[in-house]
Amino acid sequence: IKMNKDAQMRSAINQKLIETGEREGLKELLRAKLIECGWKDQLKAHCKGIDFPK
Predict the structure, then answer these.
(1) Residues 6+ away with beta carbon under 8 Å from 34
(2) Where is the signal peptide (predicted)?
(3) Which residues contact residue 23 at a Cβ distance below 8 angstroms, ignoring those fewer than 6 apart?
(4) Do the Cβ atoms of 54 and 45 come closer than 8 Å?
(5) From the CB of residue 48, how many other CB atoms can be counted at a distance below 10 Å?
(6) Could you read off the pLDDT of 1-52 as tens digits, one per residue?
(7) Within its chain, how far is the Cα of 44 from the centroid?
(8) pTM, to two decimals
């Protein structure tokens, strides 16, 4: 029951963010902060050291 309530709450919040246009703004802010802290570069460096199956 709790999981269903959590899913409903997440859905309602997501819908409200979409309706108000804030979702895109939050995504852009997150993207900018991740770039600012070098997360993308760190992830690339980490992935270069992993042998992925081909």
Answers:
(1) 40
(2) none
(3) 14, 17
(4) no
(5) 7
(6) 677 999 999 999 999 999 999 999 999 999 999 999 999 889 888 888 888 7
(7) 17
(8) 0.62
